[in-house]
Specification:
38% of the residues lie in helices and 21% in strands. The protein is of the alpha/beta class and 317 residues long. It has a ten-stranded mixed sheet, sandwiched between helices. Strand 1, helix 1 and strand 2 form a beta-alpha-beta unit.
C-alpha cells in the first residue's frame, strides 16, 4: 500500500546537483538541515560538459569523482547513519542531466545553487536553476545563503491557483513542527487592471481597493484552512499565519514583505512553463528567483496537477 504523500513528514529522496565551486558547500550544507526520512537517499550529481575533448573529459571526470568523494565523507558526519549517499558523475548538459537523473531516483526535491554565467547568456537562457525548474517539473530549492540553521522566517507567495495547496504542502514538509510564524503574501489588483479613468473618483477607487483587500484576505484564510484540513495537519502543528494582502505589483509586494520580515525561505508556485511563452520561468516566479536574497523553493506546474481545482481564480481556464 502506497503512503499518502500529503501525510509525509520528511523527504525520502533528494537530488543535489553540484558544480564543485565554493557555492557547492552552501548547497551541501543545507541538506542536513532539511527533514530527511531515516532511510532517505541523497544523490549528489555533477555533470561534466560533453563538449570537452576526450582527454580533458576523462581528467574532469576523475577530478569530479575525487571532489565528490571528499564532499560525501564530510556530509556523512552530519547525516543519520541510515541515510544513504549516492555520488554520481555524468557527462552531458547540466539541465538535461539533472532532470533525467531526478526522474530516475524519484527525487521529491532538487537542492541546488543559483549558479552563474555570462550576463548575456543568462538574459536569454536563464540560469541553470531556472531551466531545471521548467524541465524537471519537480520542486527545486535554490540555495543562496550560507546554511547555519533550519529555516525560521519562511514566506509563502500565494495565488488562487492550482499550485497553492502544493506550495503549502512543501512548506509544511520543509519546515517541521514546531513551526515558526509564516508570512503569507498575496498581491491583488482592481478588476479593471488598475487603470485610472477620469470619471472614477479617487475615493471610489480607494473604497474598491479596501473592499477587495478584505474579500481577498478572507479567501486567503479559507484557502489556508482548507489546505491544512486536506493535508491532515492537526491544529497543534499548524503554523501561525501573518497575512500580507497588498495592492500592487506581486514582485514589488513580495520583495517588500521579504525585506521587512527578513525572510530566509520564500516558497512560491509557477504556472509558466512554455519556452515560447516565457524565456524565464514566468513573469513573477522568474524575477523573484533571480532577485531574492534568500533561499527560494519553487513548485512548478506539473507538481501541482493533483491540487484541488477549487483554488483557481473565478473564470480561470
Amino acid at each position: 500500500m502506497k503512503a499518502n504523500p500529503t501525510k509525509r513528514s520528511s523527504f525520502r529522496s533528494l537530488l543535489v546537483p553540484v558544480d564543485l565551486t565554493p557555492n557547492s558547500d552552501r548547497v551541501l550544507g543545507r541538506v542536513p538541515l532539511l527533514p530527511l526520512a531515516e532511510d532517505a537517499r541523497v544523490t549528489i550529481l555533477h555533470v561534466v560538459p560533453e563538449g570537452l575533448p576526450a582527454p580533458a573529459r576523462k581528467d574532469a571526470e576523475r577530478d569530479a569523482y575525487k571532489a565528490i568523494a571528499s564532499e560525501v565523507r564530510h556530509l556523512r558526519k552530519s547525516l543519520p547513519k541510515n541515510v544513504s549517499i549516492q555520488p554520481l558523475v555524468e557527462v552531458g548538459t547540466p539541465v538535461k542531466g539533472i532532470s533525467a537523473r531526478a526522474q530516475k531516483v524519484k527525487a521529491e526535491l532538487i537542492v541546488m545553487g543559483r549558479g552563474g554565467g555570462r550576463i548575456l547568456r543568462e538574459a536569454f537562457l536563464g540560469a541553470t536553476a531556472e531551466r531545471v525548474v521548467r524541465q524537471a517539473r519537480l520542486p527545486v530549492l535554490v540555495v543562496r545563503q550560507p546554511p547555519r540553521l533550519a529555516y525560521s522566517r519562511p514566506a509563502l507567495a500565494l495565488d488562487f491557483d492550482r499550485a497553492a495547496q502544493e506550495v503549502i504542502r512543501l512548506m509544511l514538509l520543509t519546515i517541521p513542527p514546531p513551526r515558526p510564524r509564516v508570512a503569507v503574501v498575496h498581491a491583488y489588483d482592481l478588476p479593471y487592471g488598475g487603470l485610472v479613468y477620469p470619471s472614477l473618483a479617487e475615493d471610489e477607487a480607494a473604497g474598491e481597493k479596501s473592499e477587495l483587500q478584505v474579500e481577498t484576505a478572507e479567501r486567503l484564510a479559507k484557502l489556508l484552512a482548507t489546505s491544512l484540513s486536506k493535508l491532515g495537519v492537526p491544529q497543534k502543528d499548524a503554523p501561525a499565519w501573518k497575512m500580507h494582502v497588498r495592492y500592487g505589483s506581486p514582485h514589488v509586494v513580495v520583495e517588500r514583505v521579504m525585506k521587512k520580515s527578513e525572510t530566509d525561505l520564500l516558497l512560491l508556485g509557477t504556472r509558466a512553463f512554455s519556452r515560447a511563452a516565457h524565456v524565464f520561468l514566468g513573469t513573477i516566479a522568474g524575477d523573484l528567483l533571480r532577485d531574492a536574497k534568500c533561499d527560494v523553493l519553487v513548485v512548478p506546474p506539473a507538481v501541482a496537477r493533483g491540487a484541488d481545482a477549487s483554488f483557481r481564480r473565478p473564470g480561470a481556464e
